[in-house]
Amino acid sequence: MPGQANQATRRKRMFTPARLGVYAFLFSAALFFLLPLYVMIITSFKPMIEIRMGNVFALPAAATLEPWRAAWGAVSHGFWNSVAIAVPSTVIPILLGAVNGYALSFWRPRGANLLFGVLLAGAFIPVQVMIYPLVWMMAHAGVFGSLPAIVVVHVIFGMPLMTLLFRNYYASVPHELFQAARIDGGGFWRIFIQVMLPMSLPIIVVAAIMQVTGVWNDYILGLVFAGRENLPMTVQLNNVINTTTGTRLYNVNMAATILTAAVPLAIYFISGRWFVRGIAAGAVKG
User: Fold this and answer.
1) 0.90 surpassed by pTM
2) Number of domains in the chain
């Protein structure tokens, strides 16, 4: 019968060698990334006696939450420091990048292309090259080793990418919409706040995910500029893992690592569909 023939054809198409190869590659890639996470999770619940037995992939026979309590006690101060750093270091670059992208896309001031080229070049300058000049500037300004210092540094390094994202996103917005707002008497800030900003939710989510992830996972800038009282979670995690006193507690190290990575992972899982939508919208025009 025609219906059965069509079903048989579809089944053959579903199990072609190329499709099986793609599935095998995807499964191998997922296993490659998920296996270390599995080992980290089960190790964090094991007591040290079980860990010393060497059964890396075995589930814990006597699961315990004590490593998690110890890990949180070691990095909790760094967690709140990272929150205090990440919030302004995300909000400020996004706002400035949105204004820059809006101005470069619609108002086109004199020298706009040159300014955009300078900002774009800033995205490719290695962080390590700029550390010493920034240390010198912060020290002479009297803010080195403080919370404002690390926030300013993250704002500086986040501005080029944020401007690029919003400029490309606003380039995909019909110019007739901007012209209609101008005819209705809208000025620079009114059009931006009432027209452009409400349309920018997808790219704002993309920018927030990228900026929060970059700031939260940063180590070198936090170590250099934050100061002893404002060290982020990544620096304190390094101090926990690389301690030279006592016995190396692998279960505490694994729990501390998972706690440090929990915020970026949660953001990706919650906002994943917005991330894909925003990237696609911002890639329409360049």
Assistant:
1) no
2) 2
Report residue 146: phi and psi, to 5°: -135, 170
Percent of the chain with pLDDT over 90: 38
Q: Within the chain, where are the H helices?
A: 2-14, 17-44, 48-52, 66-102, 112-122, 127-141, 147-171, 175-183, 188-191, 201-217, 220-225, 233-241, 250-282
- Establish if 19 belongs to a structural domain: yes
Give the CATH number of the domain where residue 270 resides: 1.10.3720.10
**What's the mean pLDDT in 102-122?**
80
At 202-221, the pLDDT tens digits run 889 889 989 999 999 999 99
Only one residue has tokens 């606003």, namely 170
The C-alpha atoms of residue 31 and residue 42 are separated, in whole angstroms, by 16
Q: How confident is the model at residue 79 (pLDDT cuts 50, 70, 90)?
A: very high
Domain boundaries, position 226: 67-282
Q: Is residue 57 part of a domain?
A: no
CA 92/CA 203 separation, integer angstroms: 15
47-77 pLDDT, tens digit each: 998 888 888 888 888 889 999 999 999 999 9
Cα separation values, 212 from 46, 64, 75, 111, 259, Å: 31, 31, 18, 31, 16
Residue 132 in tokens = 């010493």
